[in-house]
Amino acid sequence: MKFILALLFLSLISPSEMITKMTDTLYIPDKKIAVQGVDGENNPVSLEFDKEKKILIKTEKGEKSEIKFADMPLFLKLFFFTADKTSPDTLAVSAKSISGALNAAGINTEVSTLSVSEYDGSAVLTIGKEKRFAMANVLELSKESMRPAVLKIGDETYIFSDYHRSQLPLAFPGNIKFFKNGALQSEWIFLRDEYKQK
After folding, report:
1. How far apart are CA 38 and CA 44, in angstroms?
2. Which of 12, 86, 149, 172 has the most CB atoms at less than 10 Å from its CB?
3. What angle do CA 192, 179, 149 make, to 5 degrees?
């Protein structure tokens, strides 16, 4: 019965509506969004996005760099965008911008399917393919929360998890893992103090 309801839900919501819902669940009202954490080698990492200037300041291993929104890696564009709920049109603009970035990366934002994540077995809505076992570049959204779970483009995969433990609960992943050809390349951890390993 749950599967039938899920299929009905999927048939009622288009990929563009999924991206809009995702944008809404990830929305953070602050003018500047800042998170601090560590990389896989326990080196401090900080990300600060200025919505008005559309610039991300990344500090990693003591080195600071400024990245314009247009040049930001796709996996970060999913979380750092310029929408403002006091001006609802901006949510649609941000969703359209993210959709365009996904398309530019080879994800077909015209198709989607209900699927199961190969990483944790959870139910996901997959943007980028029409059939569960098809090979394609995809963005997987958690069916429960509509937040990004997996971004897969070619031989690169990003896995997002621990939203409920992150510094910005329910809006930013506490853990981001980057794989290339199945091998872990990088990991970033943005957990609140109570969830950090001692």
Report:
1. 4
2. 149
3. 55
* CA–CA gap between residue 90 and residue 111 (Å, rounded): 24
Q: For the whole model, what pTM was predicted? A: 0.91
pLDDT tens-digit map of 83-130:
888 887 888 899 999 999 999 999 999 999 999 998 888 999 999 998
CA 6/CA 138 separation, integer angstroms? 19
Q: How would you label 98-129 residue by residue, b for 16+ Cβ within 10 Å and e otherwise?
A: bbebbeebebbbebbbbbebeeeeebbbbbbb
Task: List, in sequence order, the alpha helices (H) in the chain.
Answer: 2-12, 15-26, 74-77, 89-104
Contact at 8 Å (CB) between 148 and 78? Answer: yes
Token pair 């997996």: residue: 150
